[in-house]
Task: structure prediction
Amino acid sequence: MRFWFGIPLWQRVIGALILGGLTGYIWGPGAESVKIVGDVFIDFIKMLIVPLIFFSVVSGVASIGNLGRLGSVGWRAILLFVATGQVAVILGLTLGTLVQPGIGVDASGLQMGDIPEPAAFDWRAMLRSMIPVSPVGVMADVQVLPLIVFSLLVGVGILLARGDVPDDDEAETDSGVHGAAMIARAFDGGALIFQKITILVMELTPFGVFALMAWVVGTLGIPAVVALGKLVALNYAGCFLIIGVMYVGILAAAAKVSVAGFFRGMIDAIAVAYSTASSSATLPVTLRCTQRNLGVSKPTSSFVVSLGSTINMDGTAMYLGLVTLFGAQLFGVDLSWADYFTIALLATIGSIGAAGIPGGGLVMMGAVFTAVGVPLETIAFVAGVDRIMDMMRTATNVTGDATVTVTTASMLGELDKRELASAHDV
Ligand code: ASP
Result:
């Protein structure tokens, strides 16, 4: 027991990946008998989708404080978050379309159930399907888009109910306002609880990964391994392009700061992000780097970095676009233009809703897949290599948070550029 937990989870996962692949290769189609373990693992991941989105989106919106406080910092930061996120998703979709990593594998043997029929595009129906007529029904049916709409509204409702309270005293006298503040805290608690449950579920990863790899390789053979290798390579290429072209461009052109100074100042945070695969766990280091090494004021960096660590995940957005195309290619699902649009939208929303924890993006995949009819078995297929990709996504997400923070501060003229230029002294 102690020996098992003494090995870091990601190493156990990589070990399971290799052992599972070997087992499948030797055992052949018979390896299907261990698939049940992988099924159970995926069922647990599915279990997390609804509560994780509900609690973290509500708690994220409510934590902004009040509607007015978004102010000038908030708008600039959010515009930058959205713009970079869009470029990232488009990059993921472009890489997936050009390289087609999922072509060449006949994955039909992997199907566990019926492939959901992608709905024909009808904008009226699409518009109405986003409205959570029955919030409970939406949760019961795991309908992600209306669930996010509902969660956003609950968050805004909390902000409005609590918004005009200048201090706690008044809250004490108005039980409604007091209650809203308590509910906001309860959502923070709920978000934390489900993050912890996610970590527990992630402990199943080595077992799930072993079983899934054995099954995938046993059933599909080596082409499957080649396809996964291509996906991992594309994930890294996409992240390097986001950092090396988009962020460097923004830093040089919009923030007008020394790019070398920026990376020198951020190296600690990037290393922690890469090794922990968690934006949330890296948050304290990112804060310290932006304040001490990059010369951003405390209020601006606290606000933008913490907001960014939950809603700004460009690496995750790029990956969600890419992996959805991968799944569609794998299972021969034809995607229409409307589907591409839906993927772009949901990958963006998914990256906003993803928790900054290892595997946060993996949980969101189910949401995007279901919307365009890509079988959830794709999760089984990629789960084994997700950690290696997650590390790079997270390093990208954290670099993006700092890029937006520095740029916002620079636009507002509150960046101490001398500090940034001398980042190597710190
Ligand atoms: N692990 C990532 C993060 O914390 C989220 C993801 O899985 O993409 O930023």
Q: What stands out?
A: The domain at 2-421 is CATH 1.10.3860 (Proton glutamate symport protein). The two ends are 41 Å apart (CA to CA). The chain is about 80% helix and 0% strand.
